[in-house]
């Protein structure tokens, strides 16, 4: 019996995937390699330029990135999963970089929920893969914080301001 339990525990542990093994397409037909961000905190945010909070969220995300870019990378994941991002990659890039001055990495447009969700959101959503928690993306501008060792450490609802005290505290703590 003990051997069977040990085998099951080892099997469950082996399903955990390192965030650093993941890669996604970026908005300019290149790639985002998470391994490039080892030892940095990573803030993953699903974005939508047509969302009613896009202006505030994108401006504040850029402010946060400028404030912490030595220790934090923000990666935007444009998505139409909630019906607020109908644009193409080229249109999204023009708005995010041109209008909002975004300088942090932007992935190619993809799904962040459901059967077609991208590999990063599959990882974020599954405790079996991330080793920390099961989560679901419920709205645009939901945020996930990964610490410098690659552990998922916090999830923030879309209403949380990127420059809020709670966000600043979490970035400092982890």
Summary tags:
Glutaredoxin; alpha+beta; 34% helix; disordered N terminus; two-stranded antiparallel ribbon
How would you portray this structure in words?
The protein is an alpha+beta fold. The protein has a single domain, classed as Glutaredoxin (3-Layer(aba) Sandwich). The strands form 2 sheets. It has a 4-stranded mixed sheet with strand order 4-3-5-6, with helices on one face. The radius of gyration is 17 Å and the shape is globular. The chain starts with a helix and ends with a helix. The N terminus is likely disordered.
Query: What is the CATH homology-level superfamily?
Result: Glutaredoxin
Can you tell me the residue ranges where pLDDT is under 50 for at least 5 consecutive residues?
1-12
Q: Using the CA coordinates, give the radius of gyration.
A: 17 Å
Strand pairing plus helix content: what structural class? alpha+beta
> What is the helix tally?
6
- Percentage of residues in strands: 15-25%
Largest sheet: 4 strands, mixed
In the CATH hierarchy, the architecture is 3-Layer(aba) Sandwich
Helix content: 25-40%
Query: What is the average per-residue confidence, as pLDDT, rounded to a whole number?
Result: 93
Shape: globular
Q: What is the domain total for the residues?
A: 1
Strand and helix order? HEEEHEHHHEEH
Please tally the β strands and state the result.
Answer: 6
Q: How far apart, in Å, are the first and last alpha carbons?
A: 39 Å
**Do you know the CATH topology?**
Glutaredoxin
Strand order of the largest sheet: 4-3-5-6
What would CATH call the class? Answer: Alpha Beta
